[in-house]
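User: Fold this; tokens only.

Assistant: Input:
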Amino acid sequence: MPMNGKFVITCACTGAETTKQQNPALPITPEEVARTAEECRVAGAAILHLHVRDDRGQPTQNVARFRDAIEQIRRKTDIIIEITTGGAVGDTAAERLQPVMELEPEMASLDCGTVNFGDEYIVNTLPVMRDFAAAFRKHKVRATLECFDLGHVYASHYLIKEGLLAEPYHYGFVLNVPGAVPYTVENLSAFMRAMPAGADFTVMGIGRSSLPAQYGAIANGGWIRVGFEDNVFFSKGVLATSNAQLVERAARIGHEAGLVPATPDEVRSYLKLKA
């Protein structure tokens, strides 16, 4: 197991697609997100995957909105902040990358290919991936290499061979997005085999695959992501009361497997995040 018996929990608390209608507990405002970050840190999360919304509750890549959320989170907790560069359907590459360029977070997601996203799609060509990876390197931002398809894992090897990424390599396997690769044990195994040697990975099971994906991650030495971006239910037909409730269950699953949730500072040291 990685990190000497410890594993890492990420919470993706808001996302770009989830609405208050789907779960009234969804955090939208910077204040709500900051409170959620604090609660999830106490529950065992080391990383917060951050999307932000505007005053109408719509997804935005506005730098000022990210800055506000980050400052409010920092007043409450030491959780690692990983901002999205996936953004929302329709965002341009420049819009998606701007918060990394201006805010220089510790971590950010880097989508490794174009993917169907329900009835929509998100475009990430290899030149776009190169531009993003170069910006991450320049600003010393650790990438989570988000892969929605097996080809995305192989595409990431181009960035590594071209010197645009530095070890340690951290992957995020996003499984069960409608129109993309479903979560199965076999699919997870194929993604893992395609990684470069020594890489770590977080498993993100979307919708009803969230809980099976958590067990799959633990069984294979991986890390876990939970949160309302991925799934708003605690069990079939029962809404989760909070993001922290989902983190608490992920921590419990790890404990039952003999693992302890890593702290933010332990993850900072392991992933060699900048001071």
